């Protein structure tokens, strides 16, 4: 059973740190290479660079949750959700189909509560 997992290329789980700017503030993120590859695919679907995708995810997370706690873990979960939703046929495998063209409610409909925040998308403001 474990052979399926342990035979993963060592390159795929080698951590890689990338420096980027979020709204002009220099920061760095450390993710395994496989996650960077998935983020590149997601970004490419909408004609963005990975940095642009990360900045957009950060902004929308702040708008929705009021904070971006554990942001690196959030990015890992985004990658896993993307692949899970593809495996379930909710997101087309064709990378030529932009994510922005999909109906988010239709993609998320029927997901188990552990995978979907059913609360309507309402901006939350960060406490001052």
Number of discrete helical segments = 5
Based on helices, strands and strand pairing, what is the structural class?
alpha+beta
Terminal Cα separation, in Å? 50 Å
Q: Low-confidence stretches at least 5 residues in length (pLDDT < 50)?
A: none
Cα-atom radius of gyration: 16 Å
The CATH superfamily title: protein bp1543
Please give the order of strands in the largest beta sheet. Answer: 1-2
Q: Name the average pLDDT.
A: 92
The fraction of residues in strands falls at 5-15%
What's the overall geometry?
globular
Q: Describe the main β-sheet briefly.
A: 2 strands, antiparallel
Please indicate the count of domains: 1
What letter string, H or E per element, gives the SSE order? HEEHHHH
Task: State the CATH architecture.
Answer: Orthogonal Bundle
The CATH class is: Mainly Alpha
CATH topology: Ribbon-helix-helix fold
Count every beta strand, where a strand is a DSSP E run of 2 or more residues: 2
